[in-house]
Protein backbone atom coordinates (compact mmCIF):
# COMPACT_ATOMS: atom_id res chain seq x y z
CA UNK A 1 0.00 0.00 0.00
CA UNK A 2 2.83 2.38 0.87
CA UNK A 3 4.46 1.76 -2.47
CA UNK A 4 1.23 2.57 -4.34
CA UNK A 5 0.63 5.72 -2.30
CA UNK A 6 4.15 6.94 -2.90
CA UNK A 7 3.90 6.14 -6.60
CA UNK A 8 0.79 8.24 -6.96
CA UNK A 9 1.73 11.08 -4.64
CA UNK A 10 5.47 11.49 -5.15
CA UNK A 11 6.46 9.80 -8.40
CA UNK A 12 3.80 10.57 -11.03
CA UNK A 13 6.02 9.35 -13.86
CA UNK A 14 6.25 5.88 -12.35
CA UNK A 15 2.44 5.78 -12.01
CA UNK A 16 2.07 6.64 -15.69
CA UNK A 17 4.40 3.80 -16.63
CA UNK A 18 2.16 1.38 -14.75
CA UNK A 19 -0.91 2.63 -16.61
CA UNK A 20 0.82 2.11 -19.92
CA UNK A 21 1.72 -1.42 -18.95
CA UNK A 22 -1.90 -2.17 -17.96
CA UNK A 23 -3.17 -1.01 -21.35
CA UNK A 24 -1.20 -3.72 -23.13
CA UNK A 25 -2.62 -6.43 -20.88
CA UNK A 26 -6.36 -5.69 -21.14
CA UNK A 27 -8.08 -8.28 -23.34
CA UNK A 28 -11.64 -7.54 -24.50
CA UNK A 29 -13.95 -10.17 -25.98
CA UNK A 30 -17.06 -9.44 -28.06
CA UNK A 31 -19.13 -12.58 -28.77
CA UNK A 32 -21.85 -12.82 -31.40
CA UNK A 33 -25.30 -12.06 -29.99
CA UNK A 34 -27.35 -15.27 -29.81
CA UNK A 35 -30.58 -13.81 -28.39
CA UNK A 36 -33.46 -13.78 -30.86
CA UNK A 37 -33.87 -10.50 -32.73
CA UNK A 38 -30.78 -8.83 -31.24
CA UNK A 39 -28.86 -7.15 -34.06
CA UNK A 40 -26.81 -4.54 -32.17
CA UNK A 41 -23.15 -4.72 -31.13
CA UNK A 42 -21.31 -2.88 -28.36
CA UNK A 43 -18.22 -1.90 -30.40
CA UNK A 44 -17.93 -0.75 -34.01
CA UNK A 45 -14.76 -1.36 -36.06
CA UNK A 46 -13.73 2.28 -35.57
CA UNK A 47 -14.01 1.86 -31.79
CA UNK A 48 -11.99 -1.35 -31.94
CA UNK A 49 -9.24 0.45 -33.85
CA UNK A 50 -9.11 3.17 -31.18
CA UNK A 51 -8.90 0.63 -28.36
CA UNK A 52 -6.14 -1.30 -30.09
CA UNK A 53 -4.21 1.90 -30.80
CA UNK A 54 -4.30 2.49 -27.05
CA UNK A 55 -2.63 -0.83 -26.29
CA UNK A 56 -5.58 -3.17 -25.78
CA UNK A 57 -6.35 -6.49 -27.47
CA UNK A 58 -9.81 -7.20 -28.86
CA UNK A 59 -11.29 -10.54 -29.88
CA UNK A 60 -14.42 -10.50 -32.05
CA UNK A 61 -16.41 -13.62 -32.76
CA UNK A 62 -17.03 -14.13 -36.46
CA UNK A 63 -20.31 -12.62 -37.61
CA UNK A 64 -20.73 -10.48 -34.48
CA UNK A 65 -21.36 -7.30 -36.48
CA UNK A 66 -23.10 -8.81 -39.50
CA UNK A 67 -26.62 -7.76 -38.47
CA UNK A 68 -25.43 -4.16 -38.14
CA UNK A 69 -23.60 -4.38 -41.48
CA UNK A 70 -20.10 -4.49 -39.93
CA UNK A 71 -18.06 -7.23 -41.61
CA UNK A 72 -15.36 -9.48 -40.12
CA UNK A 73 -12.93 -7.85 -42.56
CA UNK A 74 -13.65 -4.39 -41.11
CA UNK A 75 -12.94 -5.67 -37.60
CA UNK A 76 -9.83 -7.49 -38.78
CA UNK A 77 -8.55 -4.39 -40.60
CA UNK A 78 -9.13 -2.45 -37.35
CA UNK A 79 -6.73 -4.85 -35.62
CA UNK A 80 -9.15 -7.23 -33.91
CA UNK A 81 -8.50 -10.95 -33.71
CA UNK A 82 -11.41 -12.78 -35.34
CA UNK A 83 -12.27 -15.96 -33.42
CA UNK A 84 -14.53 -18.73 -34.64
CA UNK A 85 -16.28 -19.90 -31.49
CA UNK A 86 -18.15 -18.33 -28.60
CA UNK A 87 -15.83 -20.13 -26.17
CA UNK A 88 -12.84 -18.16 -27.50
CA UNK A 89 -14.70 -14.82 -27.48
CA UNK A 90 -15.81 -15.29 -23.87
CA UNK A 91 -12.26 -16.16 -22.76
CA UNK A 92 -11.29 -12.54 -22.07
CA UNK A 93 -10.68 -10.24 -19.12
CA UNK A 94 -13.64 -8.06 -20.13
CA UNK A 95 -16.59 -9.43 -22.12
CA UNK A 96 -18.90 -6.87 -23.75
CA UNK A 97 -22.39 -7.85 -24.94
CA UNK A 98 -25.71 -6.19 -25.66
CA UNK A 99 -27.93 -8.98 -24.29
CA UNK A 100 -26.99 -10.83 -21.09
CA UNK A 101 -25.24 -14.16 -21.73
CA UNK A 102 -27.00 -17.50 -21.34
CA UNK A 103 -26.00 -19.67 -18.37
CA UNK A 104 -24.09 -22.03 -20.69
CA UNK A 105 -22.17 -19.06 -22.13
CA UNK A 106 -21.13 -17.95 -18.64
CA UNK A 107 -19.35 -21.30 -18.34
CA UNK A 108 -16.97 -20.15 -21.09
CA UNK A 109 -15.88 -17.08 -19.10
CA UNK A 110 -12.65 -16.75 -17.15
CA UNK A 111 -12.95 -16.90 -13.36
CA UNK A 112 -12.70 -13.36 -11.98
CA UNK A 113 -13.37 -11.67 -15.31
CA UNK A 114 -15.75 -8.75 -15.98
CA UNK A 115 -19.03 -8.84 -17.89
CA UNK A 116 -20.59 -5.65 -19.28
CA UNK A 117 -24.06 -6.25 -20.72
CA UNK A 118 -27.73 -5.57 -20.13
CA UNK A 119 -29.28 -7.28 -17.11
CA UNK A 120 -32.93 -7.32 -18.28
CA UNK A 121 -34.58 -7.94 -14.93
CA UNK A 122 -37.78 -9.34 -16.38
CA UNK A 123 -35.98 -12.24 -18.06
CA UNK A 124 -33.55 -13.27 -15.31
CA UNK A 125 -33.70 -15.98 -12.67
CA UNK A 126 -31.60 -17.14 -9.74
CA UNK A 127 -29.64 -19.63 -11.90
CA UNK A 128 -28.17 -16.73 -13.87
CA UNK A 129 -26.88 -15.08 -10.67
CA UNK A 130 -25.53 -18.39 -9.31
CA UNK A 131 -23.66 -19.01 -12.59
CA UNK A 132 -21.99 -15.59 -12.38
CA UNK A 133 -21.08 -16.03 -8.72
CA UNK A 134 -19.65 -19.51 -9.28
CA UNK A 135 -17.13 -17.92 -11.66
CA UNK A 136 -16.56 -14.94 -9.30
CA UNK A 137 -17.46 -12.59 -12.16
CA UNK A 138 -17.82 -8.84 -11.72
CA UNK A 139 -21.05 -8.25 -13.67
CA UNK A 140 -22.03 -4.72 -14.71
CA UNK A 141 -25.55 -3.91 -15.95
CA UNK A 142 -25.14 -1.07 -18.39
CA UNK A 143 -28.72 0.14 -17.87
CA UNK A 144 -27.72 1.09 -14.30
CA UNK A 145 -24.58 3.03 -15.27
CA UNK A 146 -24.65 6.75 -14.63
CA UNK A 147 -22.71 9.66 -16.07
CA UNK A 148 -21.07 12.43 -14.06
CA UNK A 149 -24.29 14.43 -13.77
CA UNK A 150 -26.43 11.50 -12.63
CA UNK A 151 -27.98 10.67 -16.02
CA UNK A 152 -28.11 7.17 -17.47
CA UNK A 153 -26.25 7.39 -20.80
CA UNK A 154 -27.21 4.00 -22.25
CA UNK A 155 -30.87 4.34 -21.29
CA UNK A 156 -30.87 7.88 -22.67
CA UNK A 157 -29.32 6.87 -26.01
CA UNK A 158 -31.60 3.87 -26.56
CA UNK A 159 -34.63 5.89 -25.44
CA UNK A 160 -33.81 8.62 -27.97
CA UNK A 161 -33.68 5.98 -30.70
CA UNK A 162 -36.86 4.24 -29.52
CA UNK A 163 -38.73 7.54 -29.25
CA UNK A 164 -37.69 8.61 -32.74
CA UNK A 165 -38.60 5.19 -34.18
CA UNK A 166 -41.88 4.62 -32.38
CA UNK A 167 -43.91 7.16 -34.36
CA UNK A 168 -42.66 5.66 -37.63
CA UNK A 169 -43.91 2.28 -36.39
CA UNK A 170 -47.25 3.84 -35.46
CA UNK A 171 -47.54 5.38 -38.92
CA UNK A 172 -46.85 1.99 -40.49
CA UNK A 173 -49.58 0.18 -38.52
CA UNK A 174 -52.17 2.95 -38.86
CA UNK A 175 -52.22 2.34 -42.60
CA UNK A 176 -55.01 0.30 -44.18
CA UNK A 177 -52.55 -2.24 -45.61
CA UNK A 178 -51.80 -3.32 -42.00
CA UNK A 179 -55.50 -3.37 -41.02
CA UNK A 180 -55.16 -0.05 -39.22
CA UNK A 181 -57.60 2.85 -39.27
CA UNK A 182 -56.30 3.95 -42.65
CA UNK A 183 -55.00 7.25 -41.30
CA UNK A 184 -52.02 9.33 -42.27
CA UNK A 185 -50.14 10.07 -39.07
CA UNK A 186 -50.39 13.83 -38.72
CA UNK A 187 -53.00 14.81 -41.27
CA UNK A 188 -53.34 17.16 -44.24
CA UNK A 189 -55.17 20.43 -44.94
CA UNK A 190 -58.86 20.16 -44.20
CA UNK A 191 -58.52 16.84 -42.35
CA UNK A 192 -58.39 16.71 -38.52
CA UNK A 193 -54.94 15.74 -37.19
CA UNK A 194 -54.21 12.34 -35.70
CA UNK A 195 -54.62 12.09 -31.90
CA UNK A 196 -51.58 10.69 -30.07
CA UNK A 197 -51.52 9.92 -26.33
CA UNK A 198 -48.13 9.41 -24.68
CA UNK A 199 -48.05 7.88 -21.20
CA UNK A 200 -44.83 9.00 -19.50
CA UNK A 201 -42.81 12.17 -19.95
CA UNK A 202 -39.22 10.91 -20.15
CA UNK A 203 -36.76 10.67 -23.02
CA UNK A 204 -38.90 8.30 -25.13
CA UNK A 205 -41.83 10.69 -24.78
CA UNK A 206 -39.67 13.69 -25.68
CA UNK A 207 -38.42 12.20 -28.95
CA UNK A 208 -41.78 10.63 -29.83
CA UNK A 209 -43.41 14.02 -29.25
CA UNK A 210 -40.89 15.79 -31.50
CA UNK A 211 -41.59 13.32 -34.31
CA UNK A 212 -45.37 13.42 -33.86
CA UNK A 213 -45.45 17.22 -33.79
CA UNK A 214 -43.21 17.37 -36.85
CA UNK A 215 -45.71 15.20 -38.71
CA UNK A 216 -48.60 17.43 -37.60
CA UNK A 217 -50.28 15.21 -35.00
CA UNK A 218 -52.00 16.44 -31.82
CA UNK A 219 -50.32 15.01 -28.71
CA UNK A 220 -51.33 14.60 -25.09
CA UNK A 221 -48.66 13.70 -22.54
CA UNK A 222 -49.47 12.13 -19.17
CA UNK A 223 -47.18 11.63 -16.18
CA UNK A 224 -47.45 11.81 -12.41
CA UNK A 225 -44.28 13.88 -12.03
CA UNK A 226 -45.00 17.58 -12.54
CA UNK A 227 -41.30 18.38 -13.07
CA UNK A 228 -41.20 15.92 -16.00
CA UNK A 229 -44.26 17.48 -17.60
CA UNK A 230 -42.78 20.96 -17.15
CA UNK A 231 -39.46 19.78 -18.61
CA UNK A 232 -41.03 18.24 -21.73
CA UNK A 233 -42.99 21.43 -22.47
CA UNK A 234 -39.79 23.46 -22.21
CA UNK A 235 -37.84 21.01 -24.39
CA UNK A 236 -40.51 20.93 -27.09
CA UNK A 237 -40.59 24.72 -27.16
CA UNK A 238 -44.35 24.95 -27.54
CA UNK A 239 -47.55 24.52 -25.61
CA UNK A 240 -48.74 20.91 -25.63
CA UNK A 241 -51.46 19.22 -23.60
CA UNK A 242 -49.97 17.77 -20.40
CA UNK A 243 -51.74 16.20 -17.45
CA UNK A 244 -51.12 14.20 -14.34
CA UNK A 245 -52.60 10.72 -14.47
CA UNK A 246 -56.16 10.50 -13.23
CA UNK A 247 -58.63 7.88 -14.41
CA UNK A 248 -61.22 10.22 -15.91
CA UNK A 249 -58.84 12.43 -17.96
CA UNK A 250 -56.64 9.64 -19.29
CA UNK A 251 -59.63 7.38 -20.05
CA UNK A 252 -61.25 10.14 -22.13
CA UNK A 253 -57.98 10.84 -23.99
CA UNK A 254 -57.38 7.16 -24.77
CA UNK A 255 -60.93 6.65 -26.03
CA UNK A 256 -60.34 9.42 -28.59
CA UNK A 257 -56.75 8.40 -29.44
CA UNK A 258 -55.55 6.96 -32.71
CA UNK A 259 -52.15 6.06 -31.22
CA UNK A 260 -51.20 5.33 -27.59
CA UNK A 261 -47.51 5.14 -26.61
CA UNK A 262 -46.63 3.50 -23.28
CA UNK A 263 -43.36 5.10 -22.19
CA UNK A 264 -43.24 4.91 -18.41
CA UNK A 265 -40.04 3.62 -16.83
CA UNK A 266 -40.17 1.34 -13.82
CA UNK A 267 -39.53 2.92 -10.43
CA UNK A 268 -37.80 0.80 -7.78
CA UNK A 269 -37.84 -2.15 -10.16
CA UNK A 270 -41.60 -2.21 -10.64
CA UNK A 271 -43.78 -0.68 -13.34
CA UNK A 272 -47.34 0.55 -12.87
CA UNK A 273 -50.27 -0.47 -15.06
CA UNK A 274 -51.60 2.95 -16.00
CA UNK A 275 -53.83 2.06 -18.97
CA UNK A 276 -56.48 -0.48 -17.98
CA UNK A 277 -58.09 -3.15 -20.14
CA UNK A 278 -61.37 -1.23 -19.94
CA UNK A 279 -59.68 1.86 -21.44
CA UNK A 280 -58.24 -0.22 -24.31
CA UNK A 281 -61.66 -1.75 -25.00
CA UNK A 282 -63.09 1.76 -25.45
CA UNK A 283 -60.70 2.59 -28.32
CA UNK A 284 -61.79 2.51 -31.95
CA UNK A 285 -60.82 -0.70 -33.83
CA UNK A 286 -57.69 -0.20 -35.92
CA UNK A 287 -56.09 2.12 -33.38
CA UNK A 288 -52.49 1.40 -32.41
CA UNK A 289 -50.86 0.79 -29.03
CA UNK A 290 -47.07 0.67 -28.70
CA UNK A 291 -45.82 -0.29 -25.23
CA UNK A 292 -42.17 0.75 -25.19
CA UNK A 293 -41.84 -0.21 -21.51
CA UNK A 294 -42.78 -3.86 -22.14
CA UNK A 295 -39.24 -5.01 -21.27
CA UNK A 296 -39.97 -3.89 -17.68
CA UNK A 297 -43.44 -5.37 -17.56
CA UNK A 298 -45.29 -2.68 -19.51
CA UNK A 299 -47.69 0.05 -18.38
CA UNK A 300 -50.70 -1.08 -20.44
CA UNK A 301 -52.79 -3.92 -19.02
CA UNK A 302 -53.42 -5.65 -22.36
CA UNK A 303 -49.73 -5.68 -23.39
CA UNK A 304 -47.95 -8.99 -24.06
CA UNK A 305 -44.34 -9.22 -25.15
CA UNK A 306 -43.86 -9.78 -28.90
CA UNK A 307 -40.85 -10.08 -31.22
CA UNK A 308 -39.62 -8.51 -34.46
CA UNK A 309 -40.75 -11.68 -36.31
CA UNK A 310 -44.30 -11.39 -34.93
CA UNK A 311 -44.46 -7.82 -33.65
CA UNK A 312 -48.22 -7.29 -33.28
CA UNK A 313 -51.42 -8.83 -32.00
CA UNK A 314 -54.96 -7.51 -31.72
CA UNK A 315 -57.16 -7.21 -28.66
CA UNK A 316 -60.57 -5.51 -28.80
CA UNK A 317 -59.68 -4.73 -32.42
CA UNK A 318 -56.73 -2.57 -31.28
CA UNK A 319 -53.31 -3.31 -32.78
CA UNK A 320 -50.68 -3.88 -30.05
CA UNK A 321 -46.95 -3.55 -30.82
CA UNK A 322 -44.94 -4.77 -27.80
CA UNK A 323 -41.40 -5.53 -29.00
CA UNK A 324 -38.87 -5.00 -26.16
CA UNK A 325 -35.79 -4.06 -28.19
CA UNK A 326 -37.14 -1.47 -30.61
CA UNK A 327 -33.64 -0.02 -31.10
CA UNK A 328 -32.64 -3.25 -32.92
CA UNK A 329 -34.82 -2.11 -35.84
CA UNK A 330 -32.08 0.45 -36.53
CA UNK A 331 -29.20 -1.69 -35.33
CA UNK A 332 -26.38 0.22 -37.03
CA UNK A 333 -27.44 3.56 -35.53
CA UNK A 334 -27.91 1.91 -32.13
CA UNK A 335 -24.50 0.18 -32.35
CA UNK A 336 -22.71 3.45 -33.08
CA UNK A 337 -24.53 5.07 -30.13
CA UNK A 338 -23.53 2.21 -27.79
CA UNK A 339 -19.96 2.28 -29.07
CA UNK A 340 -19.70 6.01 -28.37
CA UNK A 341 -20.60 5.33 -24.74
CA UNK A 342 -18.48 2.25 -24.06
CA UNK A 343 -15.25 3.17 -25.86
CA UNK A 344 -14.33 5.91 -23.32
CA UNK A 345 -15.29 3.58 -20.46
CA UNK A 346 -12.97 0.85 -21.74
CA UNK A 347 -10.19 3.39 -22.24
CA UNK A 348 -10.60 4.52 -18.62
CA UNK A 349 -10.57 0.90 -17.52
CA UNK A 350 -7.29 0.33 -19.32
CA UNK A 351 -5.78 3.46 -17.79
CA UNK A 352 -6.60 2.20 -14.31
CA UNK A 353 -5.54 -1.38 -14.95
CA UNK A 354 -8.82 -3.31 -15.04
CA UNK A 355 -12.46 -3.57 -14.07
CA UNK A 356 -11.85 -3.83 -10.32
CA UNK A 357 -10.03 -0.51 -10.28
CA UNK A 358 -12.98 1.06 -12.15
CA UNK A 359 -15.35 -0.19 -9.46
CA UNK A 360 -13.09 1.14 -6.72
CA UNK A 361 -12.45 4.55 -8.32
CA UNK A 362 -15.75 5.54 -9.96
CA UNK A 363 -19.06 5.63 -8.12
CA UNK A 364 -21.01 5.94 -11.38
CA UNK A 365 -19.48 2.67 -12.60
CA UNK A 366 -20.02 1.01 -9.22
CA UNK A 367 -23.76 1.62 -9.56
CA UNK A 368 -23.90 -0.82 -12.46
CA UNK A 369 -22.32 -3.70 -10.52
CA UNK A 370 -24.73 -6.42 -9.40
CA UNK A 371 -22.33 -9.34 -8.74
CA UNK A 372 -18.80 -8.97 -7.43
CA UNK A 373 -16.27 -11.75 -6.74
CA UNK A 374 -18.84 -14.40 -5.91
CA UNK A 375 -21.38 -12.17 -4.12
CA UNK A 376 -24.69 -10.68 -5.21
CA UNK A 377 -24.52 -6.94 -4.47
CA UNK A 378 -27.92 -5.73 -5.68
CA UNK A 379 -30.59 -5.58 -2.96
CA UNK A 380 -33.53 -5.60 -5.39
CA UNK A 381 -32.26 -8.76 -7.13
CA UNK A 382 -31.75 -10.39 -3.75
CA UNK A 383 -35.40 -9.73 -2.84
CA UNK A 384 -36.63 -10.83 -6.25
CA UNK A 385 -34.81 -14.18 -6.15
CA UNK A 386 -34.91 -14.71 -2.36
CA UNK A 387 -31.12 -14.63 -2.15
CA UNK A 388 -28.71 -13.00 0.28
CA UNK A 389 -26.66 -10.03 -0.82
CA UNK A 390 -23.65 -8.09 0.42
CA UNK A 391 -23.15 -4.37 0.19
CA UNK A 392 -20.54 -3.61 -2.46
CA UNK A 393 -18.97 -0.79 -0.44
CA UNK A 394 -18.35 -3.17 2.45
CA UNK A 395 -16.79 -5.76 0.11
CA UNK A 396 -14.51 -3.09 -1.35
CA UNK A 397 -13.55 -1.82 2.11
CA UNK A 398 -12.63 -5.33 3.20
CA UNK A 399 -10.57 -5.84 0.04
CA UNK A 400 -8.72 -2.53 0.09
UniProtKB/TrEMBL annotation:
Organism superkingdom: Bacteria
Domain Alanine dehydrogenase/pyridine nucleotide transhydrogenase N-terminal: 29-162
SMART domains per UniProt: AlaDh_PNT_C (SM01002), AlaDh_PNT_N (SM01003)
Keywords: Oxidoreductase
Class in the EC hierarchy, top level: oxidoreductase
Record-annotated Alanine dehydrogenase/pyridine nucleotide transhydrogenase NAD(H)-binding domain positions: 174-322
Entry's transmembrane regions: none
EC number: 1.4.1.1
One Pfam family named in its UniProt record: AlaDh_PNT_N
Coiled-coil segments: none
Family the entry assigns: Belongs to the AlaDH/PNT family.
Protein name: alanine dehydrogenase
Originating organism: Mariniradius sediminis
Amino acid sequence: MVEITEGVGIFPREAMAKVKESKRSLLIGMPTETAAQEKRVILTPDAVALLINNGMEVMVETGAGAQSKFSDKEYSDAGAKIVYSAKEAFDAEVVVKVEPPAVEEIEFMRPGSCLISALQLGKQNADFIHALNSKRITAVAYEFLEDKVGGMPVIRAMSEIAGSTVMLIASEYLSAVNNGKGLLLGGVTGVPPTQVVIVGAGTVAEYASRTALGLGANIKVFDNHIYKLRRIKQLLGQQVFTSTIDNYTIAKAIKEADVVIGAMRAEKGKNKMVVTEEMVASMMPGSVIIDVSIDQGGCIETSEMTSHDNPTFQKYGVIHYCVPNIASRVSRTASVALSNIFTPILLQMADLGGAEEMVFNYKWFMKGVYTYRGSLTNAYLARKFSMTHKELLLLLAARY
